[in-house]
Specification:
CATH topology: Sufe protein. Chain: A
CATH class: Alpha Beta
Radius of gyration: 14 Å
Helix content: 40-55%
Distance between the termini: 33 Å
Bound molecules: zinc ion
């Protein structure tokens, strides 16, 4: 397990240093701001949807390695998914980082998001890992105010 944990940390560090889709999205028709006051993580998430599909997604902002890596991987994973699939992924990811069993049924596989499984041992980090997802949900729901994890 020690090797796996090291590999997971490497993946998280790599994404935090070179986050994917780290830019504004001029074509976005949804946008929301998210803030985690416990850590100071603050992101804007941009989403371009077409019907029910998430065509493109990006983010900007600043935060700790976990929040940034999570935002980076979130953008990669939800791109091309439907809103419902993105919501299911969030539910499954939330269970992973809070140490709850995965939901049954046909919930989509987390794939590379599994690297955040270690977060469940650090309850204060759960909000870092889920901030981008909460912000994505707020953007899709068209919320105008900034979301806070508090
Ligand atoms: Zn953080």
């Amino acid at each position: 397990m020690a090797d796996l944990r090291e590999l997971y940390q490497e993946v998280i560090l790599e994404h935090s240093k070179a986050p994917r889709n780290f830019r504004a999205l001029p074509a976005a028709n949804h946008k929301a701001e998210g803030y985690n006051p416990l850590c100071g993580d603050r992101f804007t998430v941009y989403v371009a949807t077409e019907g029910d599909a998430i065509r493109d997604v990006s983010f900007e902002g600043a935060g700790c390695a976990i929040s940034k890596a999570s935002a980076s991987m979130m953008t990669q994973v939800v791109k091309g998914k439907t809103r419902a699939e993105a919501e299911q992924l969030f539910e499954r990811f939330h269970n992973l980082v809070t140490g709850q069993p995965a939901p049954g049924g046909d919930a989509p596989a987390l794939g590379k998001l599994e690297v955040f499984s270690g977060v469940s041992e650090f309850p204060l980090r759960v909000k870092c890992a889920t901030l981008a997802w909460h912000t994505l949900r707020a953007a899709l729901e068209g919320k105008q105010e900034a979301v806070s994890t508090e």
